[in-house]
Design a protein that fits this description.
It contains six helices and no strands. The protein is mostly helical. The chain starts with a helix and ends in an 8-residue tail after the last helix.
Length: 109
């Protein structure tokens, strides 16, 4: 066998992700989405109970970030909210916009 054939076999492409790792990733994303929805649901009554100490606000923000990061529809929903209310985008830090949407602040959608 010539050296070129051996060389080609050694550089074979890696196989795609197997079904187990894709299934695990799906379970993790769904878990994060459920946690995000739960945090949003908890933050509303918590914010009403403690109006002077904003305990519900950080929980709500964390829930929205988890939801937008782990679901496509959550990310689309957040983009539509930002399109309707551009002042909200000014309040969000740049690292948060990169983490959730994969873009910088004030970049056109």
């Amino acid at each position: 066998m010539p050296d070129t054939e051996r060389h080609d076999r050694q550089q074979a492409p890696e196989p795609p992700l197997n079904a187990v790792s894709r299934g695990f990733e799906l379970i993790v994303r769904q878990t994060f989405a459920i946690i995000g929805l739960s945090l949003i649901a908890i933050s509303i009554p918590l914010g009403l109970i403690t109006p002077f100490i904003p305990l519900g606000l950080p929980l709500g923000i964390l829930g929205v970030v988890l939801l937008g990061r782990s679901t496509v529809w959550g990310q689309r929903w957040m983009e539509s909210i930002l399109r309707r209310h551009p002042k909200l985008e000014r309040l969000a830090p740049n690292w948060l916009m990169k983490m959730v949407f994969g873009r910088n602040k004030n970049a056109q959608v």
